[in-house]
Amino acid sequence: MSVDAAQAPLLTASHGAVKVLTLNRPAALNSFTAAMHALLLRALEAAAADASVRAVLITGAGRGFCAGQDLNDPALAGPAADVGDLIERLYKPLALRIRAMPVPVIAAVNGVAAGAGANFALGCDMVVAARSASFVQAFSKIGLIPDCGGSWLLPRLVGRARAIGLAFTGDKLPAEEAARIGLIWQCVDDAALMDTALALATRLAAMPTKALAETRRALDDAIGLDYASALSMEGQRQSVLGRADDAREGVAAFVAKRTPNFTDR
Ligand code: T3D
Predict the structure, then answer these.
(1) How is 156-190 classified by DSSP, letter by letter?
(2) Are 185 and 59 in the same domain?
(3) Nearest CA owner, ligand 1 atom 21
(4) 3-state secondary structure of 146
(5) Which pLDDT belongs to residue 82?
(6) Contact 120 CB / ligand 1 (< 6 Å)
(7) Are residues 192 and 119 in the same domain?
(8) For residue range 96-124, what is the model confidence (pLDDT) as tens digits?
(9) Which of 67, 73, 85, 228 is most buried (most C-beta within 10 Å)?
(10) 71 within a domain of the structure (yes/no)
(11) DSSP state at residue 90
(12) What are phi and psi of 109, to 5 degrees?
């Protein structure tokens, strides 16, 4: 694995077809600054444009994953800052970029994920968390509402009762409980986190990437549709995917009893 810039607020590295992005402000639990936002968005755009990247893995340096907005960043916080403007300019583009990635995005949550840091992780396709990690909807404690997609994600992931409980109390939800209630995909021992997350990312990277991205889009879009419309939407997208190279390769490999080599993206 080759690291590009050891001191930057974001480290980027490649592990085969997996791009690994590491939030790197450990002294402030990797909370977001304007600089980190810019680097993260640029790194995601570069990964989206690079055909050799077939999965993205996001994690944090040190004992935290991400504590949300850096409440000390004078460029973003403080009395003069308009939080709504901040969301529109920085958090919304980030959340939408992740949701529109042409490849699967996995969060390897190594420690506490709070505020926008929690919802940034939950907006990824799959979340694997270390047993010592936790998820905190910290907003209510500073007079805000769940942002970075939290109002949309939480009730869909865990239902209204748990969403409102997490959002009202701002209590730390341990990773094991987060996995039990379906907020995240998996909780693993701390020592196994990166190996588990990388193995998952590598496995997904070898799968039909275009179909995975379309699966994400179909699941999100179906939420706003009635049953019949969802069935039609599925059919329309299967028409496109069914004619693509990956579907032909998948069927041919199945019939020939060999490992498929998927190339669409
Ligand atoms: O302007 C706006 O507000 C825009 C809003 C945007 C969206 C949001 O994300 S709002 C939510 C912002 N985040 C928070 O409110 C979380 C604040 N942090 C915490 O509640 C706790 O730190 C944690 C629950 C995340 C972790 O607790 P703990 O006890 O494990 O660690 P700690 O001792 O509190 O923090 C360790 C250090 O990180 C500490 O610095 P120090 O004392 O060692 O120099 C602490 O100040 C720093 N830190 C933690 N969170 C932030 C932070 N520094 C800046 N911004 C943070 N968000």
Answers:
(1) HHH-HHHHHHHHHH--EEEHHHHHHTTSSSEEE-G
(2) yes
(3) 67
(4) coil
(5) 87
(6) no
(7) yes
(8) 999 999 999 999 999 999 999 999 999 99
(9) 67
(10) yes
(11) I
(12) -85, 105
Residue 199, pLDDT score: 98
Q: Is the CB of 146 under 6 A from ligand 1?
A: no
**pLDDT digits 0-9 by tens, 182-230:** 999 999 999 999 999 999 999 999 999 999 999 999 999 999 999 999 9
Q: How many domains does the chain have?
A: 2
| Helix intervals (H) in the chain | 34-49, 83-86, 92-99, 116-122, 150-158, 160-169, 175-180, 193-205, 209-222, 227-242, 245-256
Cα of 217 from ligand 1 centre, angstroms? 33
- Ligand 1 lined by 116 (C-beta under 6 Å): yes
Q: Does the beta carbon of 130 lie inside 6 Å of ligand 1? A: no
Of 25, 71, 151, best ligand 1 pocket probe by most atoms within 8 Å of the beta carbon: 71
State which residues form the domain around 162.
Answer: 3-205
Identify the residue whose C-alpha is closest to ligand 1 atom 55: 70
